[in-house]
Amino acid sequence: MEPKVTKFDLIILGASGFTGKYVLKEALKFLNNSSQSQSQSPLNSIAIAGRNPTKLSQTLKWASNPNPPPTITILPADTSDPSSLRSLCSQTRLILNCVGPFRLHGETVVSACVDSGCDYLDICGEPEFMERMESDYHDRAGETGSLVVSACGFDSVPAELGLLFNSLQWVGPAVPNRVEAYVSLESRKRIVGNFATYESAVLGVANAKDLQAFRRSRPRRRPRPQIPGPSPSKGQTIEHQKKIGFGQKNGPSEEEVESASFKMWFVGRGFSNESLASQENSKPDMEIVTRVTGPEVGYVATPIILVQCALILLSQRKNLPKGGVYPPGIVFGPTDLQQKLQQNGISFDVISKSTISS
């Protein structure tokens, strides 16, 4: 039997959606046959897919502006039509799924990728969907060699890599005891989101009880690792809300997107020497503060993260898990993703290292 010929390095599914069009715009920077290409990359061919070819064509023109659009194949696909999804998977190494809410539209895409052995990345931020995909498809994905990674955007990657970056600053014999994270969304105008983002957030909250029940129904997971020193308290939930606009079908304007940014702080407290952690009534005597900063979270930072994850997957596939369903930190934490993000506008910085007075 002749081996299957893969035509495209990746296909962006839902490219005409509000986030999808920004993902396409970011991907074109790294497409080697595109006039926007910044440098040599592993990305030599892409296609875009969705329900409306006219909208996809218009999106390609928008994403290419002010340059003429490159020759990119437009493919019909619908998340309610499994045969169209299987056709996509047969033509590519990797699917970038931008069709949300994922609780409603994501499983058919994951299923098609897993059955075909195609790799899959998405920008989901819905915990119930992600955990259910891991439960239902991890073993099968391992058998077919399909690598499925959700949350390859702002929802998880800055937090996971930010925590890893903070932990790397603790050089032995120093050890961390707890790390608290704080995020600030900033804008010269207002912080906005489009309707699909709003719908995903509402569904995530609405189905929180389902997620708790699902977790209780699963076999007991591995025990938590031992934390040096006293058990950290849960702390308080801090909510801070500026002027937030949601529900627009058209999403924010380009000016609103360009005016926004984020900062995420990681405050790590621990012991200057691991031997102190075992002493009775010991308290942390050392603090390390790090920070992750970047552009607007939904339509700039998320496409940057997703595309960099895709480029690493394409170029370093042999060094990644053969297959399975994983969170991004497990797959991309050991790679050079942090350095790639740093080169593309998302910064990781050490703010301070200090002694905590008792």
UniProtKB/TrEMBL annotation:
InterPro entries: NAD(P)-bd_dom_sf (IPR036291), Saccharopine_DH-like_oxidrdct (IPR051276), Sacchrp_dh_NADP-bd (IPR005097). Signal peptide: none annotated. Residues 215-224 have a biased composition (Basic residues). One of its GO terms (biological process) is glycolipid biosynthetic process. Residues 214-239 are annotated as: Disordered. One of its GO terms (cellular component) is plasma membrane. Residues 11-149 form the Saccharopine dehydrogenase NADP binding domain. PANTHER family: SACCHAROPINE DEHYDROGENASE-LIKE OXIDOREDUCTASE. Belongs to the saccharopine dehydrogenase family. This is Saccharopine dehydrogenase NADP binding domain-containing protein.
